[in-house]
Structure formats: structure tokens, C-alpha cells
Amino acid sequence: MIAVTKEIRDSIVSIIADSAEYDASTVQISKSGEVTAKKDQDKTAVYDNARYLVGNIEEMIDANGNRQIGW
To answer: How far is CA 70 from the centre of its chain?
Structure first.
């Protein structure tokens, strides 16, 4: 599993900020590597307070913090 450093977290937040659905300020990374976030009202035009599983940290970035293909 990838250790979550400040740089790794910043990479994940950057990916979420570039998404068409999620609010980067709500990102949480679990100990098991699951990345969750809430929908962004400005991006989706719908109020939704639920937290969604966005992906797994190892699928989103490599150990150096670089985006994986598809993210």
C-alpha cells in the first residue's frame, strides 16, 4: 500500500478537483486506501450530502504521486 504523505494527498485532491462531480475539499482517504468525497453542488447542480467511494489510492496514483492512466 502507498504511504499517504502530504504530496500523495495533494495528488489525490488534485485529481478530485479536476473531476466533473466531486468536491476536492471533502476528500477523505481511509487506512485501507479508499478515497471518498462528496458531490460538488457547483459541478452537478444537485444537492447531495452523501459520501461516495471515488476509487482506491493505488488505482489513482503511483508511489511517486503521478496520476495513473484514466484518472
So the answer is: 13
